[in-house]
Specification:
single chain; 224 residues; mainly alpha; 8 helices; globular
Length: 224
């Protein structure tokens, strides 16, 4: 369990530092040329933004720490897989999660359902990294529950395999909300995903429902 929580702790620490760094970059005049859009602030007060982000960040932390602890014997194993099978497991889980999240996210945009939870996230028309936490608690529970459900379907996993995919999952979710383009070959895939998600916010959620890849939007004709 020490290895598992070392991974989780490191992932959450990196995500926290990334949020702080990317949010500063989004506000700094020095990086103005890297913003996808200028202006267009949040549709809420700074106090509301801080309170909601703090609430959902805390809820995410509790679920990220609590679910692995309660379900450790079911979800994890100490038997180490071969390196290639670990990669297959990690990529497979992320792809299945993103496939199912596509439909969950699209469902959240149904006119009768969106005001219940997901509308809160779309108050960020021009999101920065902080808005990766600006979600209704219902949406946080739904997203994290889906992620751990997919992990359960593929269980048991070695803690290192889970740690690697959890790191990718949390880091990408921060980057795609950054509102920034880095314009370097190394981060070209991140720039692409960030543009896709930013477009999702700008068109008020009518396209680009997948979270980690462009595949499912391309397959179902919702890519912008």
């Amino acid at each position: 369990m020490i290895a598992l929580y070392s991974w989780i702790g490191a992932s959450l620490a990196v995500s926290g530092l990334l949020v702080a760094l990317l949010a500063w970059m989004h506000q700094s005049p020095r990086f103005a040329s890297h913003r996808i859009k200028q202006g267009m602030p949040m549709r809420v007060s700074p106090t509301n933004r801080a309170l909601m982000s703090g609430l959902t960040g805390t809820l995410s932390l509790l679920m990220a720490l609590g679910i692995p602890y309660v379900g450790y014997d079911v979800l994890f194993t100490d038997a180490a897989p071969t390196w290639w099978w670990g990669i297959v497991q990690s990529v497979g889980i992320l792809l299945v999660y993103d496939f199912l999240y596509y439909f969950l996210h699209r469902l959240m945009h149904v006119k009768a359902i969106m005001p219940i939870a997901h509308y809160a996230h779309h108050r960020a028309v021009n999101p920065s990294a902080v808005e990766s936490f600006y979600q209704h608690p219902i949406e946080v529970v739904a997203g994290m529950s889906l992620f751990f459900s997919v992990v359960w379907l593929a269980s048991p996993l070695h803690p290192h395999v889970f740690g690697a995919l959890f790191f990718v999952y949390t880091t990408i979710n921060v980057f795609v909300h950054s509102g920034l383009q880095f314009r370097t070959p190394l981060l070209a895939p991140i720039d692409f995903l960030t543009r896709k998600h930013h477009a999702h916010h700008l068109v008020d959620g009518r396209k680009n429902y997948a979270s980690l890849t462009p595949f499912w939007d391309m397959m179902f004709g919702t890519s912008l």
